[in-house]
Amino acid sequence: MTTEDMESVIGSSGRKGRKFFPALCSVFGTVILLGVIAAFFPLTVPRLMGYNIYEVVSGSMEPEIPVGSVIYVKAAEPETVEAGDIIAFVQNGSVITHRVEENRYVEGEFVTKGDANSKEDMEPVKYGSLEGKVVYHFPVLGRIMTLVSGNVGKLYAALLVLCGVMFHMLAGVLRGRQG
After folding, report:
1. How much is the CA Rg of the chain, to the nearest whole Å?
2. Which of 98, 149, 163, 176 has the fewest CB atoms within 10 Å, counting from its CB?
3. With a threshold of 0.85, does the pTM exceed it?
4. Helices 3-48 and 141-149: angle between axes, nearest 10 degrees
5. Element (H or E) spanning 39, and its range?
6. pLDDT of 12 higher than 70
């Protein structure tokens, strides 16, 4: 192998190495940004589609809906709610999720019961307290939602976005030096 051949081999592998690091920075930046988007996706897109989102903090609906789950609630007309539906309603300033045992159309109220409770709720739920029907529920996602939507979670998200952007800027600088 001649000296020219050696220089051409070293030069080409050196160029490949110089192209790899900027590409790696771009990939890291993109993965970080996509991770932040993925973390906030279940909190934002369903709201745009008309769902209210809540975290389950009590075990009254276990095992169907475990503590730490997130529920997606869609507004519903009280007359369309049937026995067996799971509804969310406001009671004493809190949002409660229980199953409908009976819809009393004439009185304008629901008889409800948590799946884990042995008896029906003491107070019937007035139609005006209805938030809607529980359409979807996902275990564990509620805890993640609480972390992400709190002030600390938002700060981490902002820092991660900044990191992702900085990785992309670094990749651009490195590519500029090659040219």
Report:
1. 27
2. 176
3. no
4. 100
5. helix 3-48
6. no
